[in-house]
Amino acid sequence: MSDHPPTLPDVRMNLIRPKAPATSRVVSNELCMNGKSASFVKHLVLDVSGTPLAGNFRAGQSFGVIAPGTDERGRPHKVRLYSVACPSWGEDGDGNLVSTTPKRLIDEYQPQRPADDPSDHRLFLGVCSNYLCDIGEGDEVLVTGPNGKRFLLPEDIEAHNYLFIATGTGIAPFRGMLMELFEGAGGPTGARAVLVMGTPYTTDLLYEDLFQRLHREHANFDYLTAISRESERLYVGALIEREIDSLGHLLQDPRTLVYICGLEGMQFGIFQALARHGLADGYVTLHEDLAAKPPDDWRFGDMKRRIKPTARCMLEVY
Fold first, then answer.
1. Where are the beta strands (DSSP E) in the chain?
2. In whole angstroms, what is the distance from residue 55 CA to residue 89 CA?
3. How far is CA 33 from the centre of its chain?
4. Is 2 a residue whose pLDDT tops 60?
5. CA distance linking residue 154 with residue 180, whole number of Å
6. How much is the pTM?
């Protein structure tokens, strides 16, 4: 497979530093899920007009948020990064309204150190995620950024095709990217694009109305979902295996770019699926020790150390 690497745009970064954050204001904060769920995910829109962020973020970048108050040591909370969930022109068309997709972190305490009490199972609430899910219209939010220079659409979007793969809130950058591809001022792209979205339950699907509408309106856009805890018990890697006859043609095209965003580890099932069908070349570089083994024999630790994405594979995991 000959290589056709993308030319990425130059972007501005770190215009607002954590030591001197800028003040934004909440415009709206609404659930963006497909139904009732044990999870809570919001679509949060912030007005950043008058700050260096205005007009200077791009789909695929992130920006920082500093929650109010102090941590258990009495220090200000650290910056937490959140993906931009809107196109580069913002929710308003002028780059003044930036959005993101926060999810409430609700869990139990788990022992982290030998001295920790293993019987301590108090409820743990993520500080910044719950802060962002709680705030309402008009509230002030301290922001920094923008951050990121590689997880971006190429300068010439028509020179490539696209496979976007997300789990959970990893869908955030793809909302903005797909809006740029199909709802930009220049009209919809002629490139082929496929979005694969993985969630535990159908009700956890995010921005479902938008993606279904784009799928109906554009013959060159396909939207596939992998639901892991319902009847099919399907993960994104297994979905790619199931759809390999269709996706194989896309992946064999040297113009295709693969974007992966979600929980760390999700990428390895995808890489194994590509390797089983001889489609990994051009998207990942395998260490010779790994390349000598069948993909089903690859171990997690080996994959983490010995698989490197190429210029045609954009990886953002957390």
1. 22-31, 42-47, 62-66, 80-83, 97-100, 106-108, 123-125, 140-147, 161-167, 193-199, 221-227, 256-262, 284-286, 307-309, 313-317
2. 7
3. 16
4. no
5. 11
6. 0.94
